[in-house]
Amino acid sequence: MLGGLAPDGGLYVPQSWPALAPATIASFAGKPFAEVAAEVIAPFAGDWPASGALLDMARAAYAGFGHAAVTPLVQIGPDTWVLELFHGPTLAFKDVAMQLLARMMDTALGRRGQRATIISATSGDTGGAAIAAFRGSRHLDVVVLFPDGRVSDVQRRMMTTAEDDNVHAIAVKGTFDDCQALVKAMFAHRAFRERMRLTAANSINWARIVAQTVYYFVAAVALGAPQRKVSFSVPTGNFGDIFAGYSARRLGLPIEQLAIASNSNDILPRAYESGVYEMREVVQTSSPSMDIQVSSNFERYLFEAQGRDPEAVRAQMGALAQSRRFEMGAAHEAMRRDFAAAAASEAEVAAAIRRVRKESGYLMDPHTACGMVAAEKALAKGRTPRVVLATAHPAKFPQAMRAIGREEAELPARLAKLMTDRERATVLPAELAPIERHIEERVRAAKETSR
Ligand SMILES: *Cc1c(COP(=O)(O)O)cnc(C)c1O
Asked: How open is the CA angle 332-335-338, to the nearest 5 degrees?
């Protein structure tokens, strides 16, 4: 959890998969979300933290959500439900895992008497979720680099209105790619990295995946699991959320079908069809959080699908870096067995938003609509309940909704202050030296190590 990426550049995976007995899964029925979270996560936590402490952290993490069920299910058709994952402080599903991760990291660092600095480059969503989760943390500072003038007003305000001393929002005079290159350069700058105790909280952090398995259990049990199987359609970018679904199945949850839902950036559905994983240029869509060329967490699945053979994965990752493609080999057959997959064009996304609004009154955001399109294309209709993961609130992407011709959704009342609160950000050029200097001046870990 504290390391994020493994030192050899690979991703951490559990040494073995724990199993939850059907009776344990059945006992989740009617329990508060935080209690299920503590029970599902405990087998991965070893003897740390004590189970009571885990439950306390989960309760604190989810107390601020805008819905008492944390991740409520809404029925939108005879066999179709939406699983709303957007009731956290930044209106997108990343809050669910990030709110708990922040508390777990803070506790672990406190126990070790250490400090660390979370650093994140963001095109909009992740930075806000990280700030909302880590603000006020006693042992962590959070630094977010975003491209000045290239994020939406709501997204920017979610990063610039936190008043806590440990939050440092930097508006970079450049693009998202510049921000990402700067963060990479800071991690590569060893003296700086060690002085700041840099760490990351992106979706390659295994603790985030584990925290995301929880809502698959909560939703499936509400619909009759473990006696009844349930299918899910998951709007996918970095493959983190859907790998959490795969993990829930490995833990014992009877999931019938698990659909990878992509937008026009369809590397995964193409690999599913052809057996070749091949990069193309990223195209901009109405679901920007899924505009991704390479799905980092797919590496974890390749490891499982090839009998946990690290050499096979290493060869594929090497080929990807060299020639932007690799052959799936034995992993292709496994992928066909473990998943369904479908991509949604921009026209299909718009049509799905309009159709669902007309048929059931429900207003979906464009990310969720990709999940809806994939559910229609790839999940069997009939007796198995189909659950579409709603990964963002429609008020978070007003421009996309306007372009589709849908009325703008209103921000939830608890966010009303967001648009009038005072903003605080430092604007800096896209250059390493001034940004590092600024961070050194602000971050507490730096002050501590220089003492
Ligand atoms: C991050 C994100 C996704 C993609 O999730 P992954 O875990 O990266 O696959 C989908 N929708 C929204 C709104 C997101 O913020």
From this structure: 155
Spacing of C-alpha 447 from chain mean position: 31
Q: Can you give the residue range of the structural domain that contains 109?
A: 94-205+419-449
pTM here is 0.94
* pLDDT at 450 (0 to 100): 47
| Any atom of ligand 1 within 6 Å of the Cβ of 195 | no
Distances (CA, A) of 412 to 132, 353, 393, 417: 16, 20, 9, 10
Q: What is the pLDDT of residues 326-367, one digit of tens each?
A: 999 999 999 999 999 999 999 999 999 999 999 999 999 999
- Ligand 1 atom 8, closest CA: 238
| CA distances to 20, 41, 110, 360, 436 from 49, in Å | 19, 11, 12, 44, 34
Tokens of 279: 């990069």
Average pLDDT, the chain: 92
Atom of ligand 1 nearest to the CA of 129: 15
Question: Which of 85, 158, 291, 391 for a ligand 1 pocket mutation test, highest count of atoms within 8 Å of Cβ?
Answer: 391
CATH assignment of the domain containing 306: 3.40.50.1100
Domain assignment present for 256: yes
What residues are annotated to the active site? 94
Number of independent structural domains in the chain: 2
Quote the pLDDT of residue 449. 54
Determine the Cα–Cα distance for residues 7 and 17; give it in Å rounded to an integer: 22
Q: pLDDT: is 1 or 81 the higher one?
A: 81
262 and 321 share one domain: yes
Q: Is 394 in the pocket of ligand 1 (CB under 6 A)?
A: no
Task: For residue range 267-293, list pLDDT tens digits in order.
Answer: 999 999 999 999 998 898 999 888 888
Report which listed range, 249-263, 286-300, 413-427, is most confident: 249-263
